[in-house]
Task: structure prediction
Amino acid sequence: MYRRMIINDLKKNRLVSAAVCIFMAISACFIGLTVLLFASLLGSVDKLMTEAKTCDFLQMHSGDMDQEELKAFAKTREDVEDMLVSSFLNMDNSIISLNGRLLTDSTQDNGFCVQNKNFDYMLGMDNEILKPEEGTVYVPVCYKNEYDLEKGQIMKVCDIEFVIGGFLRDSQMNSMMASSKRFLVNPADYMRLEQYGSTEYLIEFLIKDGYDINAFSTAYGDAGLPCNGPKITAPLIRMMNALSDGVMILVILLVSVVVLIISLICIRYIVITGMEKDRKEAGMLKALGLSGKDIKNVYILKYMLLSLAGGVAGGGAAFAVSGPLGRQMRMLYGPAGNTAGIIMVSLAGIVLTEFIILCFVRGILGKNDRLSAVEAIRDSGFIAKRKTDSLMWISVVMAAALFLMLVPLNLASTVSSGKFVSYMGVGQSQIRMDIRQCDDIKRVSKDIYEKLRRDARVERSALMQTMSYRASVNGEENVELLTEEGNHTVFPLKFISGREPLAEGEIALSMLMAQELSCDTGDTILLYRSEKAESYTICGIYSDITNGGKTAKIYSDPLSGITDERPDVIWSIIYIDLKSGEDMTAWINEYQGYFNEYGNSVKIVDIAQYMDGTYGQTIRRIKLAAFTSILVSCLIIFIVILLFTRLKIWQEKKDIVLKKAIGVSCYHIRRDYLVQTLFYILAGILTGIVMGIVPGQMLAGKLMGMFGAAGFRFILDRRMVYLIIPFISLIVAILGVRTATREAVTIKITPEL
Result:
């Protein structure tokens, strides 16, 4: 009997049943997709780092060094499992071409290496250890799509030609957020190329399980070993690898939560609509002796069946959509290990989603137990008495849908804006000049900076030098602190609290560094800039998403800071603004010609080019998530408006019959519903815009704060936020009303009033 009743109900209410199934499927799809992508990303990154045997500690170094000294240090450390010194032949991008395209537009430091013996392997597309033959080169996989490369094409370095033998996964430098990229060649080819580049060393250590990497890093610095370059640890490598796709997945997670909330609201009113239409049948069944519990069980079985169908459809859609969304992830990091486990976790997320929805439906159905047979038949039962203002809920869902569209869109416009550099620990400028991998960074920095000061076309410039110092707070264990010295008032930062350092004895810390040291503005920190500790007062806390988000800034005069006795400069950066009317492209090309003598040690890019080269992949992934959320939101708006308007029509069925009886046309009835609904639609759109900017900014700020971008503020694309998205939403909503009001045409005039 139950089966026959359920089948008949599904046949009679095809649209309502389909709507419930759609919402269940959408919710299951997004939750399942989020879990699937997140588990796959972590699995892929971990598997790549495991199979490549990624080092735990990496010190990049330019200049002379004594390898025997390093070996002696490693032997004295019980926490060192293995070590190696890998050579990286840094090349000027202007002499490298891939399939006829020069890499002059690349913001990366490109160079060549040979395969390592013990760990830090370069892996192929099947995660095999590559062994290139002479005349063959393996290209970083991140360049495959960027330069439209295929196996068998030609790569040239000056007049030396290589055949691209395939593409490599470099567990340390896969991400575009890593500033260097390694090409793998045969040892004989490496020797042929040495005349064209400068050698940089990667000093790498594997640390035994159970030992502290930070403690080893401090010990390495205390030993006075080579450190003329960035220092990187395995957690930072893992974070850089996961960040570009990780931000997209977190955006999808936000979308999933909002979609689930909208689905619960909509399913609630779909259930009420069904009960409203079926109340007479329910009353007759009660009159025939069926209990309220029996009737509720029929509904529960029906919604369990719809839930099963929605879960299967949503799960299938999640697995299908994960293909294109995860394509870049699989290309960069390879397949994830433990595929069965990932599938099970994803299925668990889908089952949990459907369980939440069914529990919610059960709670709604429980209210129907109070409906008596007489009340149902007389049309005066619980549901009939309930004053359901479906139009109000149209506003709520419209606002939620606008929120769903605007948050990812605003996040994408912010990250792609040139003003986003304020969250990278620097002030906003037009041009960025990097000075790295040269024997005397101090001298080169001084020469360039003095030339810029004499250039009448330059409005202002600031030289920043980065060094590594030991620091301690409250006598606790020392930490390595990446410190940028210079005049920070030329291109001022946006501080979360406090201000920039203005004199000796003041220091500003990034938010993540301040959290790690458990300190705030006004506290004192000891900085070991020489043999003795110097006391510094923390004057400000700022955002920084570079270098793991753990940096510091102190004041120094740029020219005197170059000449005094200080530790080696790891790198220098000069920020430049040109005077109004100057041609920035021509200026950059001119200066790049001046600095050809320094090879690839000096790079000049405009900030927009730098942002695209560093965060382009992340920006594109966020934009993809934003586009997906817009499509889903439009679908939700259409279905919700359709269902809620139909609910109102059924609630006002007698009024419609009366209007038709006195001669009101269907056209005017449909127009009245459109006019009534339009007010609530517009109210929802306006509320959604506000929610997408204010609460949405707070949520995005929490998300970006995880990576060090505290005090996050949206940089809006005003045309999209205030015009295009509201207009699209309005058109979709009107289409939903027009479709729903066709129901009023089918209502016939009968004697029952």
In short: The longest helix spans residues 607-651.
